[in-house]
Amino acid sequence: MSTGEKFELGVALKGKRMCVTTNKGSSYQGILEQITDCACHGASLLLRDGTMQYYLAFSDIKEMKEEVELEETLLDVDTEIDQ
User: In terms of CB atoms within 10 Å, which of 27, 40, 55, 58 comes out highest?
Assistant: First the structure.
């Protein structure tokens, strides 16, 4: 995934909860709050998780995906077999 593709994906997912994995294997989760494209530092994003903030350069990002929170639902599963 090119830096441009990562940037476009970041713009599309701004405000959503993200899981980001870096090229070094570190993972970060948080709300994607800000995307910057600075000439001297390159494109980066800001993830915020509570009081923690993570600034990650797009060039260091291996994978980005939206974290989908599953609603807690109780399923009534009937395992009896009708005979």
Answer: 58
